[in-house]
Write a structure and sequence with these properties.
The chain is α/β, with parallel strands linked by helices. It has 6 helices and 6 strands, in the order E-H-H-E-H-E-H-E-E-E-H-H. The longest helix is centred in the C-terminal third of the chain and has 34 residues.
């Protein structure tokens, strides 16, 4: 993420909405801030029409100036979740080109059909990003974490040292951890129940419509 040559390229896997996919090229909202700090170019890889990641498309976008690839699974806004084979293909690709892989897994808690396919432990040049905004309903707190090699962590720490404004408030709630954990567990269980109920209703609607 810390690049000095403006000719260097950043690969971003684009998850476009269907209505946007053919109309215009729109950058992922979470990542445009990278460009001015990295002095690099963002290269989008389209996932239209099925929103599945295709390693061949990513490979076509890679050049000798590419330095990293950003991926997001489960994806926002499409909800696409990578399969084991798709993850392996991307890992093989970034390893072959010696790229940094930034894996944004902030929606990992919202994987309902089996365990999430994570990039954790699969690649040495991995920057895995996650946080508490989605899993713990703390979007306003802006609290997250990253797992990465030590040399990269030093650069990230230097970059983010003066961007941290909210973390100290967590200490105020530490003594109430048991209450908070129980409330979050109840909320998560209710959400999962609601999601499964909605999925079942949609399934029945589709079945009735096909008859």
């Amino acid at each position: 993420m810390f690049l000095s040559d403006p000719r260097q390229r950043l690969g971003v896997l684009r998850k476009a909405r269907p209505a946007e996919a053919r109309a215009r090229v729109q950058e992922p909202r979470a990542y445009p801030w990278v460009k001015p700090h990295a002095a690099g170019n963002v290269v989008h890889v389209d996932t239209y029409p099925d929103f599945r990641i295709n390693s061949n498309r990513v490979a076509d976008a890679v050049t000798d100036r590419t330095k990293l690839t950003v991926c997001n699974s489960p994806a926002n806004p499409t909800g696409a979740v990578w399969s084991e084979d798709e993850m392996k293909d991307i890992i093989d690709l970034v390893r072959r080109h010696d790229l940094i892989l930034i894996s944004d897994e902030i929606y990992a808690a919202y994987t309902y059909d089996g365990p999430e396919v994570t990039a954790a432990g699969r690649y040495e040049n991995l920057l895995l990003l996650n946080g508490f905004s989605k899993s713990h309903a703390m979007t306003g707190w802006r609290l997250g974490f990253g797992v990465m090699p030590e040399d990269l962590a030093e650069k990230v720490e230097a970059f983010s040292a003066y961007r941290q404004e909210i973390e100290q408030y967590m200490a105020q709630f530490r003594k109430r951890g048991g209450e908070i954990d129980k409330a979050l567990e109840d909320m998560t269980n209710k959400l999962e129940t609601d999601v499964r109920s909605l999925a079942e209703k949609l399934r029945k609607m589709l079945e009735d419509g096909s008859q």
